[in-house]
Each structure stands twice: as C-alpha cells, then as structure tokens.
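Whiteboard transcription, Tuesday session. T.W. wrote the structure tokens on the left side:
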C-alpha cells in the first residue's frame, strides 16, 4: 500500500484511490487476468497504469481510436512516464524513430489493426509482460463487422504470454462471455457498474426533422455545454450550419475532418469557448470535459451500449446532467436498412470460399474469420452477429417506447440484471417505484441549466494546441 501511495502522489499527483480502484489495482498487482467494468469518468486508466509502473511491467495498450490513444499518451508524457502510440496516421519517419528504441517505453498504445497486421514484426523483441484491452466491449460490439482484427488479439496475448487486463464501461453477460471467449482466458470479472443517478433521461417524440430542429433551438437556450449526436456526417454538417446561422456558438466533429481540426474543436469545447458540438459517434472517447450538461441524440443510437457510452459523457463532475433522445416515426428504418446493407449473405460467403473477391471490408472480415473457422462456423458466426445487431436495435426501440421508468429500463439492459433479478418481480415493482431522474417519473421533459459565458478565443486555440502537442511530442 505504501508503494502504491508513493507513486500515486509523486507521479500522478493524486492523494488516494477510490475503493473500487484499490480492489482492481490489488488484483492486477497479484498478476491476475482481470476484466474491470467501471463507469466512464471513474479513473479506469489509472487502475492499470499504476500497478504496471509499480511492478515495472512493460505494457501494450490496445485502443480503438487514435484520438483516445493520443490523449492518453499526452497525459502520461506530462507525468514524465515513457509512453508512445503507433497507428496508421503516424508518418514513416516518426514510426521508424520510435520503433528504433521501442524497448525504452513503459506503455505502447496501438490500434488492433496495426498490432495484428504489422505489430508483431516490430514488437517481437519488446519485453511485453502485460496487454491492456481498453474499451474491451469493442470485441463484442464491433467484433465481426467493423473491427474484425479484435478477434486476433488472442494471438498477441499468447505470443507474449502476457497478463491480460480488459477494461470497459459497458458490458452485459453476453459481452463478458464474448471477451473471455475471444481472448481464450478466464478473466476475473470485477463489476463496478452502478446506476448513474445524475443523468436525467428523457425521450422526446417529434413529427419530423423540422420539429427536431425547433426543439433543439429551444433547448439550447438553457442546456449549457451540449453534445448533439447524429448517425450521419451529412446531417452533422446541415444542423451545424443551421445552428451557426441562428447565432449559436457551435462546432462540429466527424471523421472526415482533419486530425488537427478535430483536436482544435475538442480543445475549444474543453476550454468553454464553444457551447455546442454536433458530432458523429467519433466524438467522445477520451474527452475529459467534466461539465457537459446535456447530451442530445438527433438520431437513435444503434444499441443500448452505444447510447450509454454517449450519455455517460455528461455530468462527469457528478453534477446533474441530462440525456434527450429525439424520436420521430420511422427513425428506426435507416439503421435497420444500414444493417441489412452491410450484412454478408450466405451466397457471398460461398463465393469467398470459392475464391471470389468481395468488397474490401467484407474481404478482410472473411479472411480473418476463415483463418480461424471453417465455412459452416463462419456462416454461424455471421448469422449470430447479425441477429445480435437486430436485437440491439429492438432494445433501443423498447427504451424509446418505454411507458414506465426510463432509468429502470436502461439498468435492466445494461447492468447485468438479466440473471440476478427476478424479472417478474421487477415488472411489478416497476409500476410502484418512481425514480428521481427520468422524464416518465417526473412529468418533465427537460432540465434548464444556467448558461455560461463563453469566452471567444477563436484564432489562438489552434496554434496554442499545436504548440503544446509538438512540445510534448519530442521523441527522446
Ligand atoms: Zn424513472
């Protein structure tokens, strides 16, 4: 405990850990393989960084988003901890320089794609003793369609024979079993997910887009720092321009923007220079703004997991925040169609096994799956995944059409309550219990927050940020 506190205070500048964090840190110090479930904004990273530094274990951290890696590496460097990140956007010279003395780093952050395709060639002499899988729900949530490379992490783990630490803020029993199955290890599951009572939940039924826009415009008058999530980049741009014309201090964030521009937007939002961000789901992981008061969903998310991740970015300071999901009839058709459009058919799978070349994404997916499974198993896996995606949308619709308490509905889907709670008794309780934090129980659509004064520093934000970034990015 003494060693823990010493490093905690001297390196991280933190006086003490929370009880949950202590339990996880101790388990990791013992050398156990751990799957830790902690709410967003509760110091997840510290729970592995601290024990790895104490035990002096070189660590590879697998992270799904470049922005998230950059952010964490910057924070570690500020604490004089040797960390770097390797990903596709790094130019070749920087990559070579970094790889030439890779063994000096305590933490190497990389994307699953880079790691499983090139990583082992470069890192095979890295004395790695631990592998951290951050946002581990991606193994299950995105596994088969979007990030198939996650399925090959077990090869990295077994190559290094490393201790495994998986972290996530969103997991149910299915996700937990998927994670263990893919990694091929029995992990000690430490579940500290609890209800976030400071998020007020509401669903607003509207007729169409015009209705949504006028609701948003009205809500923004007293919504304080706000993120509006969209499922299409086009819609982000459209609403961003509309709000700008209305005099709102708004910015936008999506994957088509340059990295520097995205960082600049993020930084200005953090500094309270802008009030509203219109964003796709690319925005948010690793954003440490604690005083986001309102998260609006213009489109319904694809799953309860995605929804919880996104609303969890509000109210990290523990103060009240709100989630407003806007729904208009038939909103679910677009995500259903998108699911169908991306679905692999049995005919396509057969074509692949006969040697035909499919579109790039499908080709990569089938290549990885066919290395691990035979044709019959591949068909089963893909069908199962497609079914899970449909179920995810159905659950989202159930939440939207919930007639009783939104909070209970969300907890029912997200807190592994399926097995521990007798569903029938919950159904009965549901009608009698009223919570303090949802629109159904409180006959109130939204909360009004005091507006902040936003200080405008348009020109400097970007330059200052670049400077800071470059200063921290000296490869020594
Ligand atoms: Zn309620």
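and on the right, the sequence the group agreed on:
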């Amino acid at each position: 405990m003494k060693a823990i506190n010493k490093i905690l205070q001297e390196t991280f500048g933190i006086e003490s850990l929370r009880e949950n964090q202590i339990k996880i840190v101790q388990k990791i110090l013992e050398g156990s393989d751990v799957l830790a479930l902690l709410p967003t904004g509760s110091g997840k990273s510290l729970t592995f960084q601290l024990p790895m530094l104490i035990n002096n274990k070189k660590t590879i951290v697998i992270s799904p988003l470049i922005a998230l890696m950059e952010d964490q590496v910057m924070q570690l460097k500020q604490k004089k901890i040797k960390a770097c990140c390797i990903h596709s956007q790094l130019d070749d010279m920087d990559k070579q320089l970094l790889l030439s003395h890779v063994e000096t780093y305590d933490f190497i952050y990389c994307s699953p794609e880079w790691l499983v395709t090139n990583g082992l060639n470069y890192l095979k002499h890295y004395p790695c003793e631990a592998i951290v899988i951050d946002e581990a729900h991606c193994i299950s949530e995105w596994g088969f369609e979007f990030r198939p490379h996650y399925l090959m992490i077990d090869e990295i783990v077994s190559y290094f024979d490393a201790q495994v630490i998986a972290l996530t803020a969103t997991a149910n029993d299915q996700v937990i079993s998927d994670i263990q199955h893919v990694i091929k290890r029995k992990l000690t599951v430490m579940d500290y997910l609890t209800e976030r009572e400071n998020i007020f939940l509401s669903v607003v039924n509207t007729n169409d887009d015009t209705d949504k826009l006028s609701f948003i415009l009205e809500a923004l008058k007293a919504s304080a720092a706000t993120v509006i999530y969209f499922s299409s980049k086009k819609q982000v741009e459209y609403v961003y321009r509309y709000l700008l014309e209305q005099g709102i201090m708004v910015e936008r964030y999506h994957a088509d923007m340059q990295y520097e521009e995205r960082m600049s937007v993020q930084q200005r939002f953090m500094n309270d220079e802008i009030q509203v961000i219109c964003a796709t789901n690319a925005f948010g992981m690793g954003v440490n703004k604690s005083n986001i008061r309102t998260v609006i969903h213009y489109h319904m998310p694809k799953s309860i997991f995605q929804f919880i991740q996104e609303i969890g970015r509000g109210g990290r300071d523990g103060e009240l925040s709100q989630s407003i999901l806007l729904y208009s009839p038939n909103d679910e058709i677009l995500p259903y169609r998108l699911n169908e459009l991306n679905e692999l058919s049995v005919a396509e799978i057969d074509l692949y096994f006969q040697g035909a070349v499919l579109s790039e994404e499908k080709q990569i997916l089938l290549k990885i799956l066919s290395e691990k499974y035979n044709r019959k198993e591949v068909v089963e896996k893909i069908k199962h995944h497609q079914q899970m995606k449909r179920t995810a949308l159905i659950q989202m619709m159930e939440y939207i059409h919930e007639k009783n308490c939104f909070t209970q509905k969300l907890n029912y889907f997200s807190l592994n309550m399926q097995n521990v709670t007798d569903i029938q008794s919950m159904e009965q309780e549901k009608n009698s219990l009223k919570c303090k934090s949802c629109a159904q129980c409180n006959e109130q659509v939204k909360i009004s927050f005091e507006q902040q004064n936003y200080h405008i520093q348009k020109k400097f934000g970007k330059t200052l940020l670049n400077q800071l970034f470059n200063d921290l990015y000296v490869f020594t």
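Someone added at the bottom: The first helix runs from residue 2 to 12.
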